[in-house]
Amino acid sequence: MTETSSTQVTSAAAETAAEEAEKNSSTTRKGATRRRAKSASTTTRKAAGTRKRRSTKAIPADTPDALIPAPVLEITDPSQFGRINVLDVTPNEECGVYPARIELGEQFTVTAQVFIEGRAKVGATAVLHTPRGRAAASRTMTCANPGLDRWTCEMQVGEHSDVLPWEDGFAAVKRQLGNWSLVVEGWEDSFATWLHDAKIKVKVHDSDVENALDEGAELLGRWAKTRDAGLNADQKKVLQTASETLANKELTPVERLAAADNDEIAALHDSNPLRDGVSPSRPVKLLVQRPKSSFAAWYQFFLRSEGAYVDQETGKIVQGTLKTSVSGLERAKAEGFDIVYLPPIFPIGVTNRKGRNNTLVAGPDDPGSPFGIGSAEGGHDTVDPLLGTMDDFKALVAKAHELGLEIALDFALQCSPDHPWVKEHPNWFRHKPDGTIAFAENPPKKYQDIYPIDFNADMEGIEKEVVRLMNLWIDAGVTVFRVDNPHTKPVRFWQDVIATITKKHPEVLFLAEAFTRPGMMRALSYAGFTQSHCYFPWRNTKEELEEYLGETNSDDAFYQHNTFWPTTPDILTAYVRDNGIAGHAVRAVLAAMGSPSWGIYNGFELIENRQRPGFEEQIDNEKYEIKVRDWSKADEYGIAEMLTSLNRIRREHPATRSYHNLTVLRSSDPNILAFARHTPAEFTGTGKPDTLIVVVNLDGHNAHQSLIHLELGDFGLPTDQGVALKDELTGREFTWGWDNFVSLAPWADVAHVLSVQY
């Protein structure tokens, strides 16, 4: 079978060919068939959810054995097999306990093992069901590995949407979200089995050729009458005519067979097959989430640095406020980002306040770290008075929404020693034997200005308070929470909190800042975190990147959505430090094209790449001081222009939206990395396929040349002629074939982002 773009909704197996054979039976049996067909059509494959199906009724006694179709077997227990065997449906992890997560409109891959005994041929159909159980779409699957009976197809839940949560059209988007299910239906492909044998018998003039052709005539006639095939009147006529020709003994066997062995019948076999013995898999759960749950472009800035300036009379820095931070929103919008992430905006504690570069003693003008949350002015439910008021925050959110930007608020569940919780809820903190509260540590880092929360005494009470706080900020317009160090809190805690929040607000997303062990990162994803920071900053060699791109864009991404950030306030790697402007451009291309979700911490445009000695973070770290930046210098480096171009490419090319369509390409130079993203025409919304080829020189100091191998057929490209490409970064045009020469230099082009011109 070949994959088809058909989106027909398959009807229940109760309407199989076996029932059609009974149509002229007794009145009682006719009535039973009608009742059964009506039940199947009105419930729209309800059986796929319950897996309970009636077995096929008795076949008329005079029906030849060769014409008896495979029956539909009743399944009363999940361990029972159907007439056709369906195993190992993916996506599916942890025995199906946690649903695979997919963004509305995102392309994804479905696979399953489908097989039958003997040499009979089988087919497979993947069927998507809405939260209400309605079969919304189906696709015929392709046998990708006959030796392992592995079948596959690409699918899509709904269509991509750019509607934002506060816009009028979001109600229609919201109705499509929630728990969908996927069923793979295996079925006996009686036509393919018959055609295979009939062609051989006709070719060798087998003595049994008459029986073979008569059997084919009966088969096509039955196919034409089968409701499950979803045929229209013209298609039925094609099959009926072919059936009559097959039965016409005045023609030669070759002429009779040609009526069934032609492109027109083959196309019907692809799009509207005869499916005998339909056997559904157990349903696989899918959690369909709103736009930006997978495909998102983040931009981070500190409010207090936006609009900050040096007072010429005093020489002191005057910090920015919520009102002056509009400039940050406008910069994010101009560069093409769609989510603005704000570090904590709450009052900052005084006790043990950190000074510049994380020194233990703060100077009189040091603002402290915004992660040292809580003071006499309030805690997590209060805006820092130095930034403004709650009304000022709501005004900033309103401006962001006007620009089409979402606001993500940092939620760091920790307290300064001055936080109101310290007195109001002392049992929420871990006390040492001497009665003092232990400060936070993440060896080798120490946070003397922060008290971590102890969840053992009153986790339920902490959950209720966190839900209250999040709802307060949601009411103020926040649609995304970036959670600081969630891996230092119980996974069950986050699971409870996120479930409570998203039950009322399914549009709210959660980003986990969890640079930790793989098991914990995966558990947090299972618990409900929509996206996750990841190891991308430390994957810099070709070998490392090829492996990590494959891992990020794989079945793992049904559960963990890695978001690629070249730098953060906490992370400045040696690669970014040592490779200058070219290195910044390289990491931006890799981040924007390597994952559907990526982010930039402001200052990246200004090449802020000086490390604090002995630490993998910036010197003069913005967490501990207010930055006064001269944004007019951004044009000197060209990185802001690069970021803008990358976000434009992402918006214009559907291939960048999925975690399930990346292929690493073979390249001959150890410093040249190449990969492609491909989305078939059925899922682009444009009617054309979308293919991007990304080639990057990882060396920020030297030019490199390489041959890039492109397996043309894998991307549906012509294999007998050149393929026209356009570099989306420069506008230059190229023609590629199977093996292609590329030369990239850091002083010219560090990368190509090539789009196939269909």
From TrEMBL:
Q: Where is the active site?
A: 484 (nucleophile), 513 (proton donor)
Oxidoreductase recorded as keyword: no
Q: Name one Pfam family in it.
A: GlgE_dom_N_S
Q: Where is this region: Disordered?
A: 1-64
Superkingdom of this entry's organism? Answer: Bacteria
Single GO molecular function:
hydrolase activity, hydrolyzing O-glycosyl compounds
Q: Which GO terms describe its biological process?
A: alpha-glucan biosynthetic process
Q: Which PANTHER family match?
A: ALPHA-1,4-GLUCAN:MALTOSE-1-PHOSPHATE MALTOSYLTRANSFERASE, GLYCOSYL HYDROLASE FAMILY 13 CATALYTIC DOMAIN-CONTAINING PROTEIN
Subunit architecture:
Homodimer.
The cross-references to HAMAP family, in alphabetical order and at most eight, read:
GlgE
- The name on file for this protein is Alpha-1,4-glucan:maltose-1-phosphate maltosyltransferase
This chain's source organism reads Bifidobacterium callimiconis
